[in-house]
Amino acid sequence: MVGHVDHGKTSLTQALTGKWTDTHSEEIKRGISIRLGYADAIFFECTQCKGSERYTNQAICGQCNKPTKELRRVSFVDAPGHETLMTTTLSGAALMDGAILVIAANEPCPQSTTIEHVMALKVAGIQKIVVAQNKVDLVSKEQALKNHEQIQFFLKERGFENSVVIPTAAHFNVNIDLLIEALEKEIQTPKKDPSLSLRMFVVRSFDTNKPGCSLEQLKGGVLGGSIIQGSIEEGQTIEVSPGLDKGPIETTVTAIHTSFGLVKKAFPGGLVAVGTVLDPNETKNDQMKGQIVGPADSLPPPVTKLHLKLFPFKRLIEGASTGLKMNETVVITIGTSTSVGTIIKTAKETVDIVLKNSVTVEKDQKVVISKHQKSGWRLAAYGVCN
Length: 386
Fold this sequence. Notes:
Layout: E1 2-3, H1 9-17, H2 25-30, E2 37-45, E3 55-56, E4 69-78, H3 86-93, E5 99-104, H4 112-123, E6 129-134, H5 141-157, E7 164-167, H6 176-186, E8 199-206, E9 222-229, E10 232-233, E11 237-244, E12 247-258, E13 261-263, E14 265-266, E15 272-276, H7 280-283, E16 292-295, E17 303-312, E18 329-334, E19 337-346, E20 350-359, E21 366-373, E22 376-385
Helix pairs in contact: 3-4
Protein backbone atom coordinates (compact mmCIF):
# COMPACT_ATOMS: atom_id res chain seq x y z
CA MET A 1 0.00 0.00 0.00
CA VAL A 2 1.89 3.06 -1.27
CA GLY A 3 1.16 6.71 -1.97
CA HIS A 4 1.51 10.25 -0.67
CA VAL A 5 1.12 11.09 3.02
CA ASP A 6 -2.47 11.38 4.27
CA HIS A 7 -4.02 9.97 1.08
CA GLY A 8 -5.66 7.16 3.05
CA LYS A 9 -3.33 4.15 2.81
CA THR A 10 -3.84 3.03 6.41
CA SER A 11 -7.61 3.57 6.23
CA LEU A 12 -7.77 1.52 3.02
CA THR A 13 -5.66 -1.22 4.62
CA GLN A 14 -8.17 -1.31 7.48
CA ALA A 15 -11.09 -1.50 5.04
CA LEU A 16 -9.49 -4.51 3.33
CA THR A 17 -8.16 -6.33 6.40
CA GLY A 18 -10.07 -5.03 9.41
CA LYS A 19 -6.79 -4.00 11.10
CA TRP A 20 -5.51 -0.49 11.85
CA THR A 21 -1.75 -0.72 11.29
CA ASP A 22 -0.65 2.51 13.02
CA THR A 23 -0.02 1.10 16.50
CA HIS A 24 3.20 2.88 17.49
CA SER A 25 2.61 5.67 20.04
CA GLU A 26 4.25 8.34 17.85
CA GLU A 27 2.14 7.24 14.86
CA ILE A 28 -1.06 7.64 16.88
CA LYS A 29 0.03 11.05 18.18
CA ARG A 30 1.07 12.45 14.78
CA GLY A 31 -1.58 10.69 12.69
CA ILE A 32 0.89 9.32 10.13
CA SER A 33 2.60 5.98 9.49
CA ILE A 34 6.23 5.85 10.61
CA ARG A 35 7.02 2.14 10.70
CA LEU A 36 5.94 -0.37 8.11
CA GLY A 37 2.50 -1.70 9.04
CA TYR A 38 1.38 -5.28 8.41
CA ALA A 39 -2.05 -6.86 8.09
CA ASP A 40 -3.42 -10.02 6.48
CA ALA A 41 -6.75 -10.57 4.75
CA ILE A 42 -8.65 -13.42 3.16
CA PHE A 43 -10.44 -12.66 -0.10
CA PHE A 44 -13.69 -14.53 -0.75
CA GLU A 45 -16.10 -14.93 -3.64
CA CYS A 46 -19.84 -15.56 -3.40
CA THR A 47 -20.86 -18.21 -5.94
CA GLN A 48 -24.52 -17.16 -5.66
CA CYS A 49 -24.12 -13.48 -6.58
CA LYS A 50 -23.04 -11.87 -9.85
CA GLY A 51 -20.93 -8.84 -10.70
CA SER A 52 -18.37 -7.14 -8.51
CA GLU A 53 -20.59 -7.57 -5.45
CA ARG A 54 -19.56 -11.22 -5.27
CA TYR A 55 -16.05 -10.25 -4.11
CA THR A 56 -15.66 -9.69 -0.37
CA ASN A 57 -13.36 -10.06 2.63
CA GLN A 58 -16.13 -11.74 4.65
CA ALA A 59 -16.89 -15.46 5.07
CA ILE A 60 -20.63 -14.69 4.76
CA CYS A 61 -21.90 -12.74 1.74
CA GLY A 62 -23.38 -9.37 2.66
CA GLN A 63 -25.77 -9.54 -0.30
CA CYS A 64 -27.38 -12.99 -0.01
CA ASN A 65 -26.20 -14.05 3.47
CA LYS A 66 -24.75 -17.31 2.07
CA PRO A 67 -21.28 -18.76 2.85
CA THR A 68 -18.55 -17.59 0.47
CA LYS A 69 -15.63 -19.44 -1.12
CA GLU A 70 -12.06 -18.60 -0.09
CA LEU A 71 -9.94 -17.34 -3.00
CA ARG A 72 -6.56 -16.55 -1.42
CA ARG A 73 -4.82 -15.00 1.55
CA VAL A 74 -3.07 -11.69 1.03
CA SER A 75 -0.55 -9.86 3.23
CA PHE A 76 -0.48 -6.08 3.11
CA VAL A 77 2.52 -3.87 3.86
CA ASP A 78 1.36 -0.35 4.68
CA ALA A 79 4.24 1.93 3.69
CA PRO A 80 4.58 5.42 5.23
CA GLY A 81 4.00 8.25 2.77
CA HIS A 82 5.97 11.08 4.38
CA GLU A 83 9.00 11.97 2.26
CA THR A 84 11.38 11.84 5.24
CA LEU A 85 10.44 8.17 5.72
CA MET A 86 11.32 7.12 2.17
CA THR A 87 13.88 4.52 3.21
CA THR A 88 11.21 2.78 5.30
CA THR A 89 8.99 2.68 2.22
CA LEU A 90 11.84 1.21 0.18
CA SER A 91 12.11 -1.54 2.80
CA GLY A 92 8.46 -2.33 2.15
CA ALA A 93 8.93 -2.33 -1.63
CA ALA A 94 11.53 -5.08 -1.25
CA LEU A 95 8.81 -7.37 0.10
CA MET A 96 6.07 -6.63 -2.42
CA ASP A 97 4.77 -8.74 -5.33
CA GLY A 98 2.28 -6.06 -6.36
CA ALA A 99 0.97 -2.75 -5.06
CA ILE A 100 -2.07 -0.60 -4.47
CA LEU A 101 -1.15 3.00 -5.28
CA VAL A 102 -3.42 5.28 -3.25
CA ILE A 103 -4.09 8.73 -4.73
CA ALA A 104 -6.46 11.17 -3.02
CA ALA A 105 -9.11 12.71 -5.27
CA ASN A 106 -9.06 16.00 -3.35
CA GLU A 107 -5.44 16.90 -4.24
CA PRO A 108 -3.71 17.43 -7.60
CA CYS A 109 -1.95 14.38 -9.02
CA PRO A 110 0.91 13.64 -8.76
CA GLN A 111 2.15 14.72 -5.35
CA SER A 112 5.91 14.54 -4.71
CA THR A 113 5.84 11.30 -2.74
CA THR A 114 3.48 9.70 -5.26
CA ILE A 115 6.30 10.06 -7.79
CA GLU A 116 8.89 8.73 -5.31
CA HIS A 117 6.82 5.66 -4.46
CA VAL A 118 6.25 4.78 -8.10
CA MET A 119 10.00 5.07 -8.67
CA ALA A 120 10.55 2.73 -5.70
CA LEU A 121 8.14 0.20 -7.22
CA LYS A 122 10.07 0.35 -10.49
CA VAL A 123 13.36 -0.30 -8.70
CA ALA A 124 11.79 -3.23 -6.86
CA GLY A 125 10.72 -4.72 -10.21
CA ILE A 126 6.98 -4.48 -9.50
CA GLN A 127 5.08 -4.44 -12.78
CA LYS A 128 1.47 -4.76 -11.66
CA ILE A 129 -0.33 -2.10 -9.63
CA VAL A 130 -3.95 -1.22 -8.92
CA VAL A 131 -4.74 2.44 -8.26
CA ALA A 132 -7.24 3.46 -5.58
CA GLN A 133 -8.57 6.96 -6.25
CA ASN A 134 -9.45 7.53 -2.61
CA LYS A 135 -11.51 10.21 -0.84
CA VAL A 136 -13.99 10.59 -3.70
CA ASP A 137 -16.57 11.39 -1.01
CA LEU A 138 -14.83 14.74 -0.47
CA VAL A 139 -15.12 16.05 -4.05
CA SER A 140 -17.78 16.70 -6.67
CA LYS A 141 -18.26 14.42 -9.67
CA GLU A 142 -16.55 17.00 -11.90
CA GLN A 143 -13.54 17.24 -9.57
CA ALA A 144 -13.28 13.45 -9.39
CA LEU A 145 -13.27 13.17 -13.19
CA LYS A 146 -10.62 15.88 -13.51
CA ASN A 147 -8.48 14.12 -10.91
CA HIS A 148 -9.00 10.82 -12.75
CA GLU A 149 -7.61 12.41 -15.93
CA GLN A 150 -4.54 13.58 -14.00
CA ILE A 151 -4.04 10.07 -12.65
CA GLN A 152 -4.28 8.51 -16.13
CA PHE A 153 -1.75 10.98 -17.53
CA PHE A 154 0.65 10.33 -14.64
CA LEU A 155 0.35 6.54 -15.02
CA LYS A 156 1.04 6.74 -18.76
CA GLU A 157 4.07 8.95 -18.12
CA ARG A 158 5.46 6.37 -15.65
CA GLY A 159 4.80 3.24 -17.69
CA PHE A 160 1.72 2.02 -15.81
CA GLU A 161 -0.88 3.15 -18.36
CA ASN A 162 -2.73 -0.20 -18.27
CA SER A 163 -3.35 -0.06 -14.52
CA VAL A 164 -6.94 -0.18 -13.28
CA VAL A 165 -8.17 2.88 -11.34
CA ILE A 166 -10.89 2.24 -8.72
CA PRO A 167 -12.69 5.19 -7.02
CA THR A 168 -12.88 4.52 -3.26
CA ALA A 169 -13.95 6.12 0.01
CA ALA A 170 -12.10 4.03 2.58
CA HIS A 171 -13.87 5.43 5.66
CA PHE A 172 -17.22 4.29 4.25
CA ASN A 173 -16.00 1.00 2.66
CA VAL A 174 -17.10 2.29 -0.75
CA ASN A 175 -16.09 0.07 -3.70
CA ILE A 176 -14.00 -2.30 -1.57
CA ASP A 177 -15.61 -5.15 -3.55
CA LEU A 178 -14.43 -3.55 -6.81
CA LEU A 179 -10.94 -3.13 -5.37
CA ILE A 180 -10.77 -6.80 -4.34
CA GLU A 181 -11.98 -7.81 -7.81
CA ALA A 182 -9.24 -5.69 -9.43
CA LEU A 183 -6.58 -7.22 -7.16
CA GLU A 184 -7.77 -10.72 -8.01
CA LYS A 185 -7.70 -10.07 -11.75
CA GLU A 186 -4.66 -7.78 -12.09
CA ILE A 187 -2.15 -8.99 -9.48
CA GLN A 188 -1.73 -12.75 -9.58
CA THR A 189 0.13 -14.70 -6.92
CA PRO A 190 3.62 -15.18 -8.44
CA LYS A 191 5.02 -18.67 -8.85
CA LYS A 192 8.16 -19.29 -6.81
CA ASP A 193 10.87 -21.89 -7.30
CA PRO A 194 10.89 -24.00 -4.09
CA SER A 195 14.36 -25.37 -4.87
CA LEU A 196 16.09 -22.00 -4.40
CA SER A 197 18.14 -21.35 -1.28
CA LEU A 198 16.30 -19.58 1.56
CA ARG A 199 16.41 -15.81 1.63
CA MET A 200 14.31 -13.91 4.15
CA PHE A 201 14.32 -10.14 4.73
CA VAL A 202 13.89 -9.16 8.37
CA VAL A 203 11.72 -6.09 8.91
CA ARG A 204 11.08 -6.40 12.64
CA SER A 205 12.45 -8.30 15.62
CA PHE A 206 10.99 -8.87 19.05
CA ASP A 207 11.52 -9.99 22.60
CA THR A 208 8.18 -11.66 23.44
CA ASN A 209 9.03 -12.39 27.08
CA LYS A 210 7.02 -10.61 29.75
CA PRO A 211 8.91 -8.72 32.48
CA GLY A 212 9.72 -10.94 35.43
CA CYS A 213 9.23 -14.27 33.65
CA SER A 214 11.16 -17.20 35.06
CA LEU A 215 14.22 -18.75 33.39
CA GLU A 216 12.14 -21.83 32.51
CA GLN A 217 9.59 -19.63 30.69
CA LEU A 218 12.17 -17.58 28.79
CA LYS A 219 11.82 -17.75 24.99
CA GLY A 220 14.40 -16.91 22.34
CA GLY A 221 14.25 -13.84 20.11
CA VAL A 222 11.78 -13.58 17.22
CA LEU A 223 12.57 -12.42 13.66
CA GLY A 224 9.69 -11.01 11.62
CA GLY A 225 9.65 -10.48 7.87
CA SER A 226 9.04 -12.10 4.50
CA ILE A 227 10.60 -15.03 2.71
CA ILE A 228 11.79 -13.84 -0.68
CA GLN A 229 12.80 -17.25 -1.99
CA GLY A 230 13.16 -20.86 -0.85
CA SER A 231 11.59 -22.05 2.40
CA ILE A 232 12.23 -22.18 6.13
CA GLU A 233 11.26 -24.97 8.50
CA GLU A 234 11.18 -25.75 12.18
CA GLY A 235 14.48 -27.15 13.46
CA GLN A 236 16.52 -25.66 10.61
CA THR A 237 19.90 -24.03 11.29
CA ILE A 238 19.95 -20.55 9.80
CA GLU A 239 22.44 -17.72 9.39
CA VAL A 240 21.50 -14.13 10.24
CA SER A 241 23.70 -11.60 8.44
CA PRO A 242 25.42 -9.17 8.75
CA GLY A 243 24.66 -9.79 12.41
CA LEU A 244 25.37 -7.29 15.17
CA ASP A 245 28.79 -6.25 16.46
CA LYS A 246 30.48 -9.64 16.05
CA GLY A 247 29.31 -10.52 12.52
CA PRO A 248 26.87 -13.17 11.21
CA ILE A 249 25.02 -15.30 13.73
CA GLU A 250 23.93 -18.92 13.47
CA THR A 251 20.76 -19.98 15.26
CA THR A 252 18.02 -22.62 15.18
CA VAL A 253 14.38 -22.16 14.17
CA THR A 254 12.14 -23.16 17.08
CA ALA A 255 8.74 -22.05 15.72
CA ILE A 256 7.15 -20.38 12.69
CA HIS A 257 4.14 -18.14 13.25
CA THR A 258 1.75 -16.69 10.66
CA SER A 259 -1.37 -14.60 11.24
CA PHE A 260 -3.34 -17.79 10.69
CA GLY A 261 -1.43 -19.88 13.23
CA LEU A 262 1.68 -22.01 13.68
CA VAL A 263 3.19 -23.90 10.74
CA LYS A 264 6.07 -26.37 10.44
CA LYS A 265 7.34 -24.93 7.15
CA ALA A 266 6.87 -21.59 5.40
CA PHE A 267 7.30 -20.47 1.80
CA PRO A 268 7.39 -17.08 -0.01
CA GLY A 269 4.26 -15.00 0.25
CA GLY A 270 2.97 -13.33 3.37
CA LEU A 271 4.57 -12.30 6.60
CA VAL A 272 6.10 -14.70 9.11
CA ALA A 273 7.54 -14.52 12.61
CA VAL A 274 10.37 -16.97 13.19
CA GLY A 275 11.11 -18.07 16.74
CA THR A 276 14.80 -18.77 17.42
CA VAL A 277 17.25 -19.51 20.23
CA LEU A 278 18.78 -16.05 19.85
CA ASP A 279 19.30 -14.00 22.99
CA PRO A 280 16.04 -11.99 23.20
CA ASN A 281 18.08 -8.98 24.28
CA GLU A 282 19.53 -8.95 20.73
CA THR A 283 16.13 -8.93 19.02
CA LYS A 284 14.20 -6.46 21.17
CA ASN A 285 13.08 -3.11 19.73
CA ASP A 286 13.68 -4.14 16.10
CA GLN A 287 17.46 -4.39 16.57
CA MET A 288 17.60 -7.11 13.89
CA LYS A 289 15.71 -5.05 11.29
CA GLY A 290 17.54 -5.15 7.95
CA GLN A 291 19.16 -8.54 8.47
CA ILE A 292 19.08 -11.25 5.79
CA VAL A 293 18.35 -14.87 6.76
CA GLY A 294 19.64 -17.87 4.81
CA PRO A 295 20.80 -21.44 5.42
CA ALA A 296 23.99 -21.74 7.48
CA ASP A 297 27.14 -20.72 5.52
CA SER A 298 25.12 -19.72 2.43
CA LEU A 299 25.34 -15.93 2.53
CA PRO A 300 28.20 -13.78 1.21
CA PRO A 301 30.41 -12.19 3.88
CA PRO A 302 29.37 -8.72 5.11
CA VAL A 303 31.14 -5.74 3.51
CA THR A 304 31.67 -2.07 4.31
CA LYS A 305 32.45 -0.94 0.74
CA LEU A 306 30.26 -1.15 -2.35
CA HIS A 307 31.16 -0.86 -6.03
CA LEU A 308 27.96 -0.25 -7.98
CA LYS A 309 26.93 0.10 -11.58
CA LEU A 310 24.87 3.28 -11.42
CA PHE A 311 21.40 4.02 -12.81
CA PRO A 312 20.51 7.62 -11.88
CA PHE A 313 16.96 8.91 -11.59
CA LYS A 314 16.91 11.61 -14.26
CA ARG A 315 14.34 13.73 -12.44
CA LEU A 316 16.82 14.61 -9.69
CA ILE A 317 19.84 15.32 -11.87
CA GLU A 318 20.84 18.73 -13.17
CA GLY A 319 24.02 18.96 -15.17
CA ALA A 320 25.90 16.06 -13.56
CA SER A 321 26.38 12.60 -15.03
CA THR A 322 25.35 10.86 -11.83
CA GLY A 323 24.07 13.59 -9.52
CA LEU A 324 26.43 12.21 -6.85
CA LYS A 325 29.60 13.95 -5.71
CA MET A 326 32.87 12.94 -4.08
CA ASN A 327 32.73 12.87 -0.26
CA GLU A 328 28.95 13.28 -0.35
CA THR A 329 26.98 11.51 2.40
CA VAL A 330 24.24 9.22 1.10
CA VAL A 331 21.74 6.74 2.51
CA ILE A 332 21.68 3.32 0.86
CA THR A 333 18.87 0.78 1.07
CA ILE A 334 19.51 -2.93 0.42
CA GLY A 335 16.43 -5.09 0.83
CA THR A 336 15.18 -4.00 4.25
CA SER A 337 18.58 -2.72 5.40
CA THR A 338 19.40 0.99 5.56
CA SER A 339 22.92 2.36 6.01
CA VAL A 340 24.77 5.66 5.78
CA GLY A 341 27.79 5.91 3.49
CA THR A 342 30.26 8.29 1.90
CA ILE A 343 31.07 8.41 -1.81
CA ILE A 344 34.78 7.87 -2.35
CA LYS A 345 34.87 7.48 -6.13
CA THR A 346 32.60 8.35 -9.05
CA ALA A 347 32.81 7.52 -12.73
CA LYS A 348 30.44 7.85 -15.65
CA GLU A 349 28.54 4.66 -14.89
CA THR A 350 29.85 3.49 -11.50
CA VAL A 351 30.20 4.69 -7.93
CA ASP A 352 32.16 3.46 -4.89
CA ILE A 353 30.67 3.96 -1.43
CA VAL A 354 32.21 3.33 2.00
CA LEU A 355 29.62 2.48 4.67
CA LYS A 356 29.54 3.28 8.38
CA ASN A 357 28.34 -0.24 9.17
CA SER A 358 28.61 -3.60 7.42
CA VAL A 359 25.92 -4.91 5.08
CA THR A 360 25.19 -8.19 3.35
CA VAL A 361 24.65 -7.84 -0.38
CA GLU A 362 24.62 -10.43 -3.16
CA LYS A 363 25.87 -10.18 -6.73
CA ASP A 364 23.46 -8.32 -9.03
CA GLN A 365 21.34 -7.18 -6.09
CA LYS A 366 19.84 -3.70 -6.41
CA VAL A 367 20.90 -0.93 -4.02
CA VAL A 368 18.89 2.29 -3.76
CA ILE A 369 20.77 5.55 -3.12
CA SER A 370 19.16 8.60 -1.49
CA LYS A 371 20.80 12.00 -1.15
CA HIS A 372 19.94 15.06 0.90
CA GLN A 373 17.97 17.71 -0.95
CA LYS A 374 16.41 20.92 0.37
CA SER A 375 13.18 19.07 1.07
CA GLY A 376 14.88 16.13 2.82
CA TRP A 377 16.31 12.76 1.77
CA ARG A 378 15.18 11.98 -1.77
CA LEU A 379 15.85 9.16 -4.26
CA ALA A 380 18.88 9.90 -6.42
CA ALA A 381 19.77 6.61 -8.13
CA TYR A 382 19.94 2.90 -7.82
CA GLY A 383 22.96 0.69 -8.32
CA VAL A 384 23.61 -2.95 -9.08
CA CYS A 385 26.34 -4.79 -7.15
CA ASN A 386 28.96 -6.42 -9.35
